[in-house]
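Weekly structure sync, notes
Attendees: PL, DS, HV (note-taker this week)

Item 1: Zinc finger MYM-type protein 1
DS walked through the input record. Source organism listed as Macaca mulatta. Sequence as pasted into the shared doc:
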Amino acid sequence: QGLDTILQNLKLCFSEFDYCKIKQISELLFKWNEPLNESTAKHVQEFYKLDEDIIPELRFYRHYAKLNFVIDDNCINFVSLGCLFIQHGLHSNIPCLSKLLYIALSWPITSASTENSFSTLPRLKTYLCNTLGQEKLTGPALMAVEQELVNKLMEPERLNEIVEKFISQMKEI
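Item 1 (cont.): predicted structure, written out as tokens:
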């Protein structure tokens, strides 16, 4: 499946508005071998209220990706792109694009069918309840109660550290 086919399938899972945002960010981050659509870049920059002009970052990123990323275009996704950002140190060099990647990684994932649309959150809750002991469920409960602390941890500089630690732990598994 090509990226366009995957995006068409995602359209079934998201509202039209969400799909439009996913498609725009996907085109900016995944299609580095194609000409840059500056109007899409400006639209995304304005919508997400990014502080700086993302076009120079996109040009640098696309040039760097062409030279350094060796992947199958059909297998790229936001998680694998996040790993590449961390491996190549791009998350600190192109902060606006890193923010877009964090936004994309935070989108809720849904599974659509003709009869029902199931959110990931209830399935995750069921999975956690069925597979983890009570002590493991206290973490998500504490996060819900301690929202102020969680918000502090979600600041970009702390989030970078958390993402790097998570990726390094995932590599060890």
